[in-house]
Amino acid sequence: MAAESRQSKPKGFGMMTRIVYFHQAICLAFFVSGLRLSSVPGVEQLVLHRLVGIVVSLASLLAMFAVANGKSLKALDWLRVVLWIGVFKILIVQLWLLGQGEIGLPSYTRAMLINELVAIPLALYWSRPSHFHYLSSVDRGTGSTAA
Q: For this UniProt entry, which segments traverse the membrane (predicted)?
């Protein structure tokens, strides 16, 4: 009877999980490698941005792992929050760099397209209510009362 109430995984669940892992691993690698450049004059201002990026990437990876493997509703909430923080962080940092004259308009446009064309669809996908319903049904199906 528990199997009857269990919903199937939302369409694209596995693929979008892998995209989150890949995207955040790439971001993490860029942020960590960027910290090595912080000793270069004029780059000190970006250290905070890179540290926040590392925290956001690690939080995204941990939350994604908990959602995909632990089927955790609490982790789904955290994943949604962290992905949207990442979207806004990208936007704010890119606008700040543009305002500081650190990057030109073509570089700004390219960076925004590359980052936001991945980050926004991921945040939208994981914000869909079907994930909550799926994870709730898995939680009910296993008989667990923890959220």
A: 20-39, 51-69, 81-99
Q: Rounded to a whole number, what is the largest CA-CA distance in the chain?
A: 65
* Residue 7: inside a domain: no
Q: Is there a domain that residue 5 lies in?
A: no
Tokens 């570089």 correspond to 107
| Each residue's pLDDT tens digit, 127-143 | 999 999 998 888 766 65
Domain interval for residue 116: 12-142
Residue 75 falls inside a structural domain = yes
> CA of 98: how far to CAs of 53, 84, 93, 108, in Å?
18, 21, 8, 7
Number of domains forming the structure of the chain: 1
Residue with tokens 């369409």: 11
- The C-alpha atoms of residue 119 and residue 11 are separated, in whole angstroms, by 18
DSSP 27-88: HHHHHHHHHHGGGSTT-TTHHHHHHHHHHHHHHHHHHHHHHHHH--HHHHHHHHHHHHHHHH
Phi and psi torsions of 80, nearest 5°: -60, -50
Model pTM? 0.79
Q: What is the DSSP letter of 71?
A: -
3-state class (DSSP) for residue 7: coil
More confident residue, 42 or 22: 22
